[in-house]
Amino acid sequence: MSHDKRVRRFRRLWLTLGVVRLIAAGLWVGNSSALWGGGDGRPLLLAHRGIAQTFPLDGVENDTCTASRVHPPDHSYLENTLPSMRAAFAAGAGMLEVDVQVTADDQLAVFHDATLECRTDGTGRVRERTLAELRRLDLGYGYTADGGATYPLRGRGRGLLPTLEQVVAAFPERELLVDLKNDDPAEGGRLAAYLATLPAERLKTIGVYGGDASVAAVADRLPGIRATSKKIMKDCLVRYLATGWTGHVPAACRHTELHLPQRYGRLLWGWPNLFVDRMRAADTRVVLVAGEGPWSAGFDRPADLAEVPAGWSGWLWTNRVDAITP
Asked: Which residue ranges run through the membrane (predicted)?
């Protein structure tokens, strides 16, 4: 190769690298959270099941009884009960997440586990019991922090299991997020039938999430409701990764909710605060969850807040709103 050809090839290479640098700089400037993000430093708090007893996530599997491994209790609240929910809102929660299942007599019971043996003094599946049967159970029966030597919450949960209708009535102007625990279209249809009876203004304050099939059943009946599932979130994020560099928010990301750990968020255009601003403009809530493992964890201790991006103005997922608000 002649000297002149080598010079021309070298110049073309540098020109190409220069163009790439300019494009990269333009993408950075256009998607810089530091330059364009709001980030007023006022996170919103989503109280997961109200104020709950927490537990270590190490070694947790789908069938792990988490009530048998809670941290030593420093409060007496039981998740998914009205006292726990009232305490969460009083402590500063902006939204409440509750777990819902359909009972044998077609009621919308607020309870997490599909079976009763872990937390209560009952047996069998929630969907095999009537609401009256469930309300006779002690919801604090199975909680222990010392391998079963003591059960400090036993006897505190009898008669506390609420229905979704009771929760909605108890907090008439509050934001609620309903988690359909069973990915069953029939249960989604039952929830949709109840939600359809609510006034339009009240329905605006209620979101639904869960399995793909159950959430789809709700969205089909109530297309205007805020709904999310793994499929909905994946569709949104895949499309945003492809086009978000332009600032465009795809239709799949509008009027929904995104639950994201930081490890995923860091991949998104404009993360963190510009991304939150873009989604807020599209009427979508961004909820940051803690943890890097397979399970979503809450920001439950003051020390956990060190992991929150500076200036974060989206939502934070927490089981202990009372502990982190101060």
From this structure: 12-30
- Top CATH class, 39-112+162-324: alpha beta
Q: Name the residue among 184, 229, 226, 191 with its Cα closest to residue 209.
A: 229
Hey, which residues does 138 pair with through a beta bridge? 158
What pTM, to 2 d.p., does this model score?
Answer: 0.91
Closest CA to 260 of 233, 227, 300: 233
How far is the C-alpha of 140 from the C-alpha of 311, rounded, in Å? Answer: 38
The whole-angstrom distance between residue 255's C-alpha and the CA centroid of its chain comes to 15
* 3-state SS assignment for residue 96: strand
Longest distance between any two alpha carbons in the chain, whole Å = 92
Enumerate the H helices of the chain as residue ranges: 3-30, 33-36, 82-91, 131-135, 164-170, 185-195, 200-203, 212-221, 230-243, 262-265, 273-281, 321-324
How far is residue 192 from each of residues 128, 157, 165, 187, 321, measured CA to CA in Å? Answer: 21, 29, 13, 9, 29
CB 32 within 8 A of CB 273: no
**H/E stretch holding 260:** strand 257-261
Task: Give, for all 326 residues of the chain, the pLDDT tens digit.
Answer: 676 676 667 577 666 555 445 444 455 456 777 766 666 678 999 999 999 999 998 888 888 999 999 999 999 999 999 999 999 999 999 999 999 999 999 999 999 999 999 999 999 999 999 999 999 999 999 999 999 999 999 999 999 999 999 999 999 999 999 999 999 999 999 999 999 999 999 999 999 999 999 999 999 999 999 999 999 999 999 999 999 999 999 999 999 999 999 888 989 999 999 999 999 999 999 999 998 766 778 999 999 999 999 999 999 999 999 999 98
